[in-house]
Amino acid sequence: MITLYGYWRSSAAYRVRIALNLKKIKHELISVHLVKDGGQQHSESYVKLNPNHLVPTLVDGDFSLNQSLAIIDYLDESFTNVSLYPSNIKDKALVRALACDLACEIHPLNNLRVLQYLSNQLNISDDQKTAWYHHWILEGFSALELRLAKTAGQYCFGDSVTVADLCLIPQIYNAKRFNVDMSVFPLINKIEHNCSLLPEFIAAIPENQADAS
Amino acid sequence: MITLYGYWRSSAAYRVRIALNLKKIKHELISVHLVKDGGQQHSESYVKLNPNHLVPTLVDGDFSLNQSLAIIDYLDESFTNVSLYPSNIKDKALVRALACDLACEIHPLNNLRVLQYLSNQLNISDDQKTAWYHHWILEGFSALELRLAKTAGQYCFGDSVTVADLCLIPQIYNAKRFNVDMSVFPLINKIEHNCSLLPEFIAAIPENQADAS
């Protein structure tokens, strides 16, 4: 039995939910509320499972694993019914690079703990925090839009859903939540539209989770 | 012919240099100076190659690829003389998670462009910037030390060098450069010592690069 410890609004958990749905893997979702109780990710029991105090964590029998990209690759290699990468080595590398453009360059800078540090340790204003948030998304999406001009079909890479789409959709969700102007990214918007039609993506939307509030 | 566009002090480029050395891949290094000329990563010719304005970029014939983790995986799948991952799916996933703990949780927060934003846009003091830098390394290394207690042998995962070591060593280099107290991380220090004996790691050290200044 596979269990995913996550949080409705965590974009890293959102990525993994899409993967579980696409691969039709039976699983249980356990909510780790990142705000309630001072953040349940800091609870003694959760930190034993994940000393980084971060979601998600996947538990598969007696095997536990953190880091969304590592989890998605683990699921991809363990459940081969649907592949989340192209088979060609070069194409696979390009998909992985697109995923890292999102997961290593944009998301880490706008994560909850970083925003908390900016407010609590650096005492920056809400306007400065919004500018920070927008800055990294606009920088990242501007570069991504140029890359997608070379790789995209219906999705980030050609006409099959890949790990890149699993990283892009949660990042767009965050961008919209913080009112980033998305009108300048036509390719990103097209891919979002195409993914929004797929039931596996719909079921993974934060507002469709049991712990959404 | 393989060409790596990098910079002596870029830890993402440093990771790839180690991989190229371990796999004994003949290659050329081209320096993109991140400070000189206002940052050569912003030059028109480089941005055509890498619209993210970041190093490294690998060029293999007419194929170009960004993102150090994607590059390392591409090299690992293309040159199979030495493997940078364990063969077992679960072990491989754990190594990938360790690499992401470093490459997605620590490094992006302490990257040059982020430090520049903190100074130029948020006007924080040098002391605050040092505290920021130390904070993310100490958070990340504290969790990593606990994980290594379960996985480490001579290196991060057992007794073979993996991608996790390729990410760890450059991160330690940065930590020392910014005078982080490393005495509280005995396992990390042991692994650093063991890697420091390997010629492939020695040749990749920033100060041993032609563009070091």
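The domain at 89-200 of chain A is CATH 1.20.1050.10 (Glutathione S-transferase Yfyf (Class Pi); Chain A, domain 2).
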